[in-house]
Amino acid sequence: QLQLEESGGGSVQTGGSLTLSCVVSGYNRNYNCISWFRQAPGKEREGIAAVTKSGATAYYADSVKGRFTASRDDAADPVYLKMTNLGPEDTAMYYCAAIVCPYWQIPSEVQAWGQGTQVTVSS
Fold this sequence. Notes:
Blueprint: E1 3-7, E2 10-13, E3 18-25, E4 33-39, E5 46-52, E6 58-60, E7 68-71, E8 79-83, E9 92-99, E10 112-113, E11 117-122
Parallel strand pairs: 2-11
Antiparallel strand pairs: 1-3, 3-8, 4-5, 4-9, 5-6, 7-8, 9-10, 9-11
């Protein structure tokens, strides 16, 4: 059974940066991507970035492209989400999730979720 645990959330001011980490443990041969989702109060959960299991390829939603970087050195390492130039619109609970890459933005396709870490950006 696959388990994921996020860390690194916190409170920052507009323009600041944070790096989230996701440690993946256990076994599940059916996933090949780790996605990052976020959910703000009253909004739907959205997929914002993903990286392949090997770390070779990353995918980004338009809302974070150029500001966020998803990375992983290899399949045994944590997955990172480096977030820069943060704004109040980035305030949300952030989750990492195991998924098959073509569906990286679809919450219903997630095979395992982390518990989430809160990011709050103040103006």
